[in-house]
Amino acid sequence: MSAVVQSASTEAEENLTDGFNLIIDALKLNGLNTIYGVPGIPITDFGRMAQAAGIRVLSFRHEQNAGYAASIAGFLTKKPGVCLTVSAPGFLNGLTALAHATTNCFPMILISGSSEREIVDLQQGDYEEMDQLAIAKPLCKAAFRVLHAADIGIGVARAIRAAVSGRPGGVYLDLPAKLFGQVMNADAGKKSLVKVIDAAPAQIPSPDSIKRALEVLKSAKKPLIILGKGASYAQADDAVRAFVEKTGAPFLPMSMAKGLLPDTHPQCAGAARSTVLKDADVVLLIGARLNWLLSHGKGKAWGDAPKKFIQIDIEPKEMDSNVEIVAPVVGDIGSCVTALLNGMGGNWPAASADWIKAVTTKRDDNIAKMAPKLMNNNVPMDYHGALGVLRTIVKERPDAILVNEGANTLDLARGIIDMYQPRKRIDVGTWGIMGIGMGYAIAAAIETGKPVLCVEGDSAFGFSGMEVETICRYKLPVCIVIFNNDGIYRGTDVNASGSSDPAPTVFVKGARYDKMMEAFGGVGVNATSPDELKRAVNAAMDSGKPTLINAVLDPAAGSESGRIGNLNPQSKLKKK
Ligand code: ADP
Ligand code: MG
Questions:
Q1: Cα–Cα dist 561/163, whole Å
Q2: Angle 19-29/152-164 helices, nearest 10 degrees?
Q3: Which residues sit with Cβ closer than 5 angstroms to ligand 2, an ion?
Q4: Which of 77, 172, 203, 343 could form a disulfide with 136 if both were Cys (CB 3.0 to 4.6 A apart)?
C-alpha cells in the first residue's frame, strides 16, 4: 500500500505519494525486502523510511562491502540483491561490486542517489557531481535512470528483469536527488507500479541440441562432468544429481559448485583433478566457463588426448569462447538437465569400469597422502594442521555457510574442506578477488539464517575488516578465522634496500586481530594450536555469537600467490 502524503496547500485535499514511497512500494511489490547500503545524501531518509515500511535495511561501513553482500545475496536467492549508495564516491565504491556481480553472473541492483541532471550535464560543479549512468554502463549488464516519479514502477521492473533473466548480472539504477521528493497522485502512483511476472522465464533447450549432446556423451570412453557455480545458482539440485548419477561419470566441482553433490560422493573427482582433465575424452560443462580457472580448455593442463566438449549454458555467446563446443546446449540448467535425463531413457550404458577405476584410484591415493598432514598438531600451526580441524568442523556442521578468501588460505581450504550441501561455499569467484569476506558473511547470515564460518587470510581480511562492527551491531552468527602468517603470502620477506621500512608484503608481526572483535562487543580468541582452534570454532558455532579467532600460523608457511604464482611476471634483470 502506498503511504499517503497529505498536501497542505491544495484546496481540495488530494491523496499524494512521492518518490521515496514509490521506490519502497516498487521494491516490496517485487519481493525485494532487504537493502544493503551506506546512508548519506541523498538517500538517508530513504533508508529510514524503507526500514519503517518493513524492509530490512543493513547499514555497512563501506559501500564495497555492502555491494559484495548484495551480489552474493543474488547468488544465494536468485533474486537481485539490492545495494544502496550515495552519489559519486559512494557510487564508485559500490561499482567494484557491481562489476564483480556482472563478471560472476550474480543478479544485483546498485541503486545510487545522484546529483541534479541540469548541473551535472553542464558540468557546473554540483555536490558530488558525476555522470554516474555513463560510468556504470560498461561495467554492468544494464543501466537505467528514472527522472519522473511516475516512471519508478517501470524503472524498478526493468532493473529486476535485466538482473535475473538470461545470464544474470549487475544492473545500475540511477535516482537523482530530486526524484525522491517528487509528488504525484497516490492512486496514479499505485497504478504505475509493476509487479514483474516470470522475471527469469525457463529457457527450454532445442530437442536437436539435446539429441546431439546425448550422442556425444554416449560415445565417450572417458567422460567427465564439470559443475560450475551456474549449476549451483540454478537451484536445480535434484535434477543435476539424478543426471550425474545416471551418467555414472566422474564429476569435478568448480569452487562454488562444491557440495552440489557432496565432495565425498563416489563419483567426485575433486582429488583427481589433473588426471581427469588430462585423460577425459568427452567433457560436459554445466554452468561453468572455460576461462582461466579451467586453463581455457587447452594446453598442458588438458593433456594431449583429443577432447570433445559439450556445454550447457543459458548464454549462447558463451559457446566456442575458447575451444570448439561440439554440442552446445543453450537453456537454463534445470530445463537442460531434465531434458537430457528424459532423453537418456531406461538403459543408458554404464561408464567404463577402467576409467572409473583409474580415477578413483588416483583420488583415493591423493586423499590418503594428504590425511596425515591434516592431523598434525604443530605449534606454530601450518595450513594443513589448521585446515584439518576446520574440515572436521564443516563435516559435523554441513549446513553452515563457508566463506573463503586469501591466497594460500583460499587455495588450500578449497581443496581440503569437503562440502556436503549446495551453495554452502562462497568465495573469491571469477576474478579471484580479495575483499568479499565480510560482505559475503553478512549477506549469508541474513539471507539463509544459517551459521557462517569465514576462513580468511590476514591480508584478505584487511580489505573488509571494519565490517566486524556491522557483524556485532546486527548480532550475526558469524565466526571469522584469520590465518595470520604476518603478511601477504608469507610474513618473512625482508626489505632488500636495507632501509628501516618493512618489505611490501609483510604486516605487523604478532598482530592480534581478535582484539578488533572485542572492541565491538564480540568474542575474540587467540588460537595458537589446532586444538585451541577447534575448541574456539566449536564454541562460536554453538553460541552463534560474533567471534573472531586469530589463528597464529608460522610466518614461513605459505607460498607466493598460493597456487597461481605462475601468473606473476618475473624480471630477468632483478638484482640478486
Ligand atoms: P565457475 O567459475 O564455477 O566455473 P562460471 O561463473 O565461470 O562458473 O560459469 C557460470 C556459467 O553459468 C555462466 O556462463 C552463466 O551464463 C551460466 N549460468 C548461470 N545461471 C544459469 C542458469 N540458470 N542456467 C544456465 N546457465 C546458467
Ligand atoms: Mg597471510
A1: 33
A2: 40
A3: 457-458, 485
A4: 172
State pTM to two decimals. Answer: 0.96
Beta strands in 368-423 (DSSP E): 401-405
| Residue range 56-88, pLDDT digits in tens | 999 999 999 999 999 999 999 999 999 999 999
Distance of CA 124 to the CA centre of its chain: 39
Q: Report how far residue 41's alpha carbon sits from residue 44's, in angstroms, rounded to the nearest whole number.
A: 6
The span from the CA of 141 to the CA of 435, in Å, is: 22
**575 pLDDT band (50/70/90 cuts)?**
low
Domains with residue ranges and CATH for the chain: 2-192 (3.40.50.970), 207-361 (3.40.50.1220), 375-561 (3.40.50.970)
How many angstroms separate the alpha carbon of residue 413 from the centre of ligand 2?
A: 14
For the segment 284-301, what is each residue's pLDDT rounded down to a tens digit? 999 999 999 999 999 999
Pairing of strands 15-18, 5-6: antiparallel
> Cα–Cα distance between 21 and 425 in angstroms, integer?
37
Cα of 104 from ligand 1 centre, angstroms: 8
Return d(Cα 9, Cα 272) in angstroms, integer: 75
Q: Are 67 and 96 in contact (CB under 8 A)?
A: yes
b/e map of 504-518 (b: 16 or more CB within 10 Å)? eebbeeebebbebbe
Kindly give the residue spans of alpha helices, DSSP state H, lying in 6-77. 19-29, 44-52, 63-77
Task: Identify residue 498 by its one-letter amino acid code.
Answer: G
Q: How far is CA 188 from CA 26, 396, 401, in A?
A: 13, 55, 44
From the list 497, 417, 413, 421, the residue with the least C-alpha distance to 460 is 413
pLDDT per residue as tens digits for the range 234-261: 999 999 999 999 999 999 999 999 999 9
- Assess contact for 489 and 512: CB atoms under 8 A: no
Half-sphere exposure of 255 (CA within 13 A, CB side): 20
DSSP track, 75-134: HHHSS-EEEEE-SHHHHHHHHHHHHHHHHHT--EEEEEEE--HHHHHTT---TT---HHH
Please give all residues whose beta carbon lies within 6 A of any atom in ligand 1, as ranges. 104-105, 167-168, 228-230, 233-234, 254, 256-257, 287-289, 291, 293, 313-315, 318, 332-333, 430
